[in-house]
């Protein structure tokens, strides 16, 4: 069930009404989450139910912590490998003959990573285990974050879930905040991401012939993926807030970052912290020799890339980011006077790296990079928009991003608190309703729903 | 207060959509397609003059319906000036060409080519090519539009352009949505107007009807809600399966057996009988109207596919079909234009399959409506035909 749909808004409204009406709305939210996920189809639903049940059984087992974690890794990573990487592995192994390529269950990467983190946190005694199967199920299945995160941590989220069963939950006090986040997310997705998608798809149909088109496509995809994913996260966080739960922030305007480390502190924060806490640090982090820490860093980022999909381009994308972060450590530049230049160079690298993420194959990416570097060819398509409009548009997107960084957070919360009331609620609700009805040329699922 | 807030939100979205439509942002951000017309007593649906907007399907292009209710060109007066030659072209969405700006449609390009042509008669000072096309209208509706509107513009040449398969659909024989040929008491096919009993037709000219149409014309949100309401409930809820992009030319043997066989059956075998009767009545009426108004009449047929050279049987079938069509039209004083053959010859393509690059945009290249290159190709072919006709015609009082 896409977030930018009338069905989702109706489900959210029904859930909100039930949460207000019932002192212990946990089972209502479980039902809503099942309805939400069931739209994906019986196969996806069954895989999800089995995964949750098996993870619960691991917790119930009387095994020692180390064996529980081993089983959890085998189960959750095994599921991801089995569904996501089977084709890649069999192809790499040169396996011949036919085999059935099963579809990727919706959100499997997210809920398996979340489950694995849960078991590790419980084993480390960083959080108490879920008190019942129902609370564990709701922790896993809570619909705003089920299919594309944020990847929630048990110590943050489980206590909130438990309160839904005991009736001692905190009700949201700033309804306008939740509604505003949902509306903002829909604007990002419907107005921007879905508008940029056809242009990006057209440019990426084949490696462009001119550097102009190549850079344009990369720049547009840079914003498409940001608006798509951060828009989804905004809706998820806003919806959860309205239902009385707090999800962690997942994006902090990453394109104002000045370097690679800062970028990953602002982009898909729940994934980068997961990689840091469950992969990078356990593998040694910055301890040991410089070479060792460099290998750990690059390997962690490569695996982060691999998480996104079964394609060599994702692995190279992650590896490239690892190397870039490493270079950022080796040659840090702290002089503020160079900040605009640092930002420009950093953004050019970010934009170029997104080409790897978007390209269907490594060869395509290489041809695309060749086009980007063919500085002698800046031909503009005959019937396309004038270059002046295009440059203004791209600049405008960066300005919007900067404005978002300035306005989001405390200034916005103060304004929402001041005007919180039925007038503002009605305004935000009608904006959201109209936005989900805006037709698009083609259905563009949220990009991260595919992971 | 909640309702007031809702209205404020609607107003905000309305303002936002209007700003997008009025600025270069229309090239990228969401716009709501205009509703170009309203129920029409004569042909079921007609253009509303001065309507403008951005077309967003397949390709984005600004469009305006002229003050005369034409796709284009703008600034045409009803009365012709001395030395002015008018070519009236009707057709469906392929001729209407909403996917490109008017100056790139083949009608506009044909006009430009004809006015640059060196070998026109000296008496011809200017050629105007009028685009009377409308989406979805088949041969009968084109004829009705010509009779009720096109001839009043005093054309010298008229051209109907339709899909060859239009003669095989029920559009010409079903009068529930638009004029259609229906049998009278004696079994003879006459024009039926059952569509005039539709709710939209009966109330279009009332105050509430005009208010509703005005709201659709001027309000982006109203138009959005109206267009959405035409979808299925699953689509409205956002639960419909993801639409697949229009596929490029489906892989096949290039012989176009099915299409050619059905067209051969109609034109040579005169079957299905009802469709054949409708086709002959249409051509008779077209011919009569052209004679009455003393215009040179053309009928251009597209999607009469040219099979690959290796498909001998289909080549023969096509040749026989084209021969019959040419004869039937010539018997009635109508000139036949075999568009697919003309394009294939012009572009040195072996078959219609090699012409797919003239259709579609971006990811949908190969399918859909004429793209910029396609309009250019059509204009090249049609301008030659019209120029030849103008050179050969007697100097008429028109």
Notable traits:
heterodimer, A: 451 residues, mainly alpha, 2 domains, 20 helices, 0% strand, B: 398 residues, alpha/beta, Rossmann fold, five-stranded parallel beta sheet, globular
Architecture overview:
Chain A is mainly alpha-helical and 451 residues long. Chain A has 20 helices and no strands. Chain A is globular, with a radius of gyration of 22 Å. Chain B starts with a helix and ends in a 6-residue tail after the last helix. In chain B, the strands form four sheets. Chain B has a five-stranded parallel β-sheet, sandwiched between helices. In chain B, strands 1-2 form a two-stranded antiparallel ribbon. Chain B has a two-stranded antiparallel sheet with strand order 3-4. Chain B is of the alpha/beta class and 398 residues long. Chain B has one domain: 3-Layer(aba) Sandwich (Rossmann fold), CATH 3.40.50.1110. The longest helix of chain B is centred in the N-terminal third of the chain and has 21 residues. At the A-B interface, helix 1, helix 10, helix 18 and helix 20 of A face helix 1 and helix 7 of B.
